[in-house]
Design the sequence.
């Protein structure tokens, strides 16, 4: 028997066209378990498990053109920095090339089973950070591109990133395949496990990083394990106090952000034509708008801090050129800092292919997607809209703490066995995120109990890694012939 809310049937196609998905439509479809299983199995007629291996470049494909098109909305002097970071290696290129891959994925078979996508689920966008309970948890940690869409897109972006990273580390093809298989297999089996659990259990599921260490200890060489332990210990000190020592100095008795252009530049230097008091009056208004996006207890906590100074910061690889601001806050005692980061949120690279977001504020889109996918999110996660002092254009931002025990595994240190373990962690984590937002029972039925899906994803990963190398070479050529500009950072 099928039970639906009154407007679910009418709203389903419209929700898909607008990019809305689970947790965003306001219309919930209630099906029996049998119907959900049937839906998943029926999806194989739309996209067989084996078809997940398919990829071929579309006609007129121009990845460099897509990347250059993104420059129009970015800070002009930072665009060459972005290209320079992408040209460090095929892997850094892959990290910055979410838009070309979104265009490619739109041409691949899709089952029609939609979830809240990360949108940029490469292996470096997973990591550990502090939960509100002050535990170190492992999760997806980048949501700039989050949007509802076909679940396969996230899985394929993750698997291909493992293949690209494995090539960068010189792993043989046999090892790279095992790594991609590990990610896909753990995604599939985890989804089948979640399908058997009560939804509330799925919602509360999370991965504490400390218990995972024992598994790594038994499968990683002792020397490398000690290095990993040191990095993990360092993560516990990566907070606002550490950032204070690194990013600021004391000038005439006042704490000030150190200017290191173009990486970090105080707003007073960027907007030199404005009176400082007028500039900070505007910034306080912006901060007030952001504060209203927080739940009441966290709003109260934030109110205990006063803004000291703001600076522009260059972040990431693909994000370089979007506007990111560091806000130095203090509890007015000089010894209790809080660093917030406000990062510009532009429309998702998936929007043209999966449908636009239902949120008019792109910062709210990021925050809503993060809350839906992450087990535990930063307590200061919120959004705002800012009118640029130079051109008057309004831009959307999301805000979170700059550093709070953040820890990313150094990919270049991994051996094949360690990367396979890491791939399994990422596969489980992505499955849990998708199980929260999508129909986990239909997904589990589609994926099935065999390794067909795993094998197809591993095939896709290597095929796309080949394409990524061609695209990397295309950007190199574009810089050489003057079509694109790149800056080497010193």
Sequence:
């Amino acid at each position: 028997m099928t039970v639906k809310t009154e407007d679910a049937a009418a709203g389903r196609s419209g929700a898909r066209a607008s990019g809305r998905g689970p947790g965003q439509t306001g219309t919930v479809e209630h099906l029996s378990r049998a119907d959900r299983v049937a839906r998943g199995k029926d999806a194989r007629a739309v996209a067989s498990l084996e078809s997940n291996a398919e990829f071929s470049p579309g006609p007129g494909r121009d990845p460099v053109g897509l990347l250059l098109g993104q420059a129009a909305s970015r800070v002009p002097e930072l665009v060459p920095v972005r290209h320079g970071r992408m040209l460090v290696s095929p892997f850094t290129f892959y990290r910055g090339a979410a838009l070309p891959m979104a265009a490619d994925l739109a041409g691949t078979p899709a089952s029609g089973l939609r979830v809240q996508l990360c949108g940029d689920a490469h292996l470096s966008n997973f990591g550990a950070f502090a939960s509100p309970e002050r535990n170190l948890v492992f999760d997806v940690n980048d949501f700039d591109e989050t949007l509802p869409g076909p679940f396969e897109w996230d899985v394929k972006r993750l698997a291909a990133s493992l293949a690209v990273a494995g090539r960068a580390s010189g792993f043989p093809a046999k090892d790279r395949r095992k790594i991609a298989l590990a990610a896909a297999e753990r995604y599939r089996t985890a989804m089948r496990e979640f399908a058997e659990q009560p939804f509330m259990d799925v919602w509360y599921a999370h991965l504490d990083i400390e218990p995972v260490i024992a598994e790594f200890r038994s499968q990683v060489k002792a020397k490398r394990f000690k290095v990993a332990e040191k990095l993990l210990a360092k993560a516990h000190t990566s907070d606002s106090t550490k950032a204070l020592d690194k990013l600021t100095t004391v000038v005439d008795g006042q704490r000030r952000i150190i200017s290191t252009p173009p990486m970090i530049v105080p707003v007073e230097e960027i907007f030199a034509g404005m009176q400082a008091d007028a500039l900070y009056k505007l910034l306080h208004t912006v901060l007030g708008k952001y504060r209203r996006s927080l739940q009441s207890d966290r709003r109260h906590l934030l109110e205990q801090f006063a803004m000291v100074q703001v600076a522009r910061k260059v972040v990431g690889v693909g994000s370089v050129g979007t506007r990111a601001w560091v806000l130095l806050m203090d509890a007015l005692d000089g010894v209790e800092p809080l660093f917030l980061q406000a990062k510009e949120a532009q429309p998702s690279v998936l929007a043209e292919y999966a449908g636009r977001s239902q949120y008019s504020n792109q910062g709210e889109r990021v925050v809503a997607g993060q809350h839906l996918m992450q087990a535990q999110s930063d307590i200061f996660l919120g959004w705002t809209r800012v009118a640029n002092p130079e051109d008057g254009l309004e831009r959307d931002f999301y805000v979170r703490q700059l550093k709070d025990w953040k820890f990313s595994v150094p990919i270049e240190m991994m051996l094949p066995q360690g990367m396979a373990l890491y791939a399994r962690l990422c596969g489980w984590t992505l499955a849990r995120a998708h199980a929260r937002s999508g129909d986990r029972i239909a997904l589990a039925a589609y994926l099935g109990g065999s390794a067909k899906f795993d094998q197809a994803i591993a095939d896709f990963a290597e095929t796309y890694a080949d394409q990524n190398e061609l695209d990397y070479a295309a950007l190199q050529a574009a810089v050489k012939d003057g079509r694109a500009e790149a800056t080497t950072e010193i």
